[in-house]
Design brief:
Elements: H1 15-33, E1 45-50, H2 56-67, E2 71-76, H3 88-96, E3 101-105, H4 109-118, E4 123-125, H5 133-147, E5 154-158, H6 163-175, E6 178-182, H7 191-204, E7 208-211, E8 222-225, H8 237-244, H9 251-255, E9 263-266, H10 278-281, H11 288-307
Parallel strand pairs: 1-2, 1-3, 3-4, 5-6, 5-8, 6-7, 8-9
Helix pairs in contact: 1-11, 2-11, 3-4, 5-6, 5-11, 6-7
The structure holds phosphoric acid mono(formamide)ester and norvaline (NVA).
Length: 308
């Protein structure tokens, strides 16, 4: 397998790479639980640029680096000279002289691509407006753990066709998981992502569907949702709450899958009472905290494969 330099989206990641990350993540998770140290990145440092808020991504990357024997350095976008106009290219070149890897959470996906182009060290996307690849790797790892396999499963993502939806589409198509995006008209995922996932899915048996009809959740092994207004869309919040209301994941929608063991997933943070009810997030079918935990284990695998 060719060593990858950056992780910008799951669009160019292979099924073999995903499988290797799952295998390593499962091994490192077991070692972590057993208290066995694994200093695979001893002495290495990761710069972590955040242009947006974060709880899971910030803490899981920082703890991942510490548990791997290295360290993570939190850099707020507004406090960097980047916030005063220094270019992405110059920032990438300077950071590359100090650190062994860069993780960045940004608005414009083109900023991730520019960092990757100009940094001599690996660049990992910790969320852009276009994609959230580390999230989807942790999500499919979580599904694998609960269902014991991936190929042939069906995931229905109910809500906004956003960054998280894009990464679930790319990942599902590579892994043989059918993905249906169920969303209001006008909030469909990017057409290019749907086209690429459909083509990949043809090779793995994954069926990609985009529908405005909630009855498309029938038969789903996983129901997934995310906030209706992502970071940067705060002004649209009120309007979106009105438009997305029929797409709320509640007990009635969960029952529409026709399967009693459908998992409920959410990348978190959740807006309880909007995209999902308390009853569903706190139900026996919900695996949202396993998902959050798996960010740590999945990212350790990604960090090791890129930085060791
Ligand atoms: N799911 C996720 O990325 O969470 P944070 O925004 O808290 O990092
Ligand atoms: N779609 C959300 C995900 C947060 C983890 C956002 O971009 O804000």
């Amino acid at each position: 397998m060719k060593k990858r330099k950056d992780l910008a989206t799951l669009g160019d990641v292979t099924q073999a790479e995903l499988q290797a990350w799952f295998d390593l993540a499962i091994k490192l998770k077991a070692e972590t639980k057993a208290g066995k140290p694994h200093h695979l990145l001893a002495g290495k440092n990761l710069a972590m640029i955040f242009q947006k808020s974060s709880t899971r991504t910030r803490v899981s990357f920082e703890i991942a680096m510490r548990q791997l024997g290295g360290s993570g350095l939190y850099l707020s976008g507004s406090e960097l000279q980047l916030g005063r106009g220094e270019t992405i290219a110059d920032t990438a070149k300077v950071l590359s002289r100090y650190v062994d890897g860069i993780m960045a959470r940004v608005y414009a996906h083109s900023d991730i691509l520019a960092l990757a182009e100009h940094a001599s060290v690996p660049v990992i996307n910790g969320l852009s407006d276009f994609s959230h690849p580390c999230q989807a790797v942790a999500d499919y790892l979580t599904i694998l753990e609960h269902k014991k396999h991936l190929k042939g499963l069906a995931l229905a993502y109910v809500g906004d066709g956003n960054n998280v939806a894009h990464s679930l589409l790319y990942g599902g198509a590579k892994l043989g998981v059918s993905v249906s995006i169920v969303c209001p008209k006008g909030y469909e995922p990017d057409e290019r992502v749907v086209k690429e996932a459909t083509a990949d899915g043809k090779k793995t048996g994954s069926r990609i569907v985009v529908s405005n009809d909630v009855s498309a959740v029938k038969g789903a092994d996983v129901i997934y949702t995310d906030v209706w207004a992502s970071m940067g869309q705060e002004k649209e919040h009120e309007e979106r709450v009105r438009i997305f209301k029929p797409y709320q994941v509640n007990a009635q929608l969960m029952a529409m899958t026709g399967k009693p063991d459908t998992l409920f997933m959410h990348c978190l943070p959740a807006h309880r009472g909007e995209e999902v009810t308390d009853e569903v997030v706190d139900s026996r079918q919900s695996v949202v905290f396993d998902e959050a935990e798996n960010r740590l284990h999945a990212q350790k695998a990604i960090l090791v494969s890129l930085m060791a």
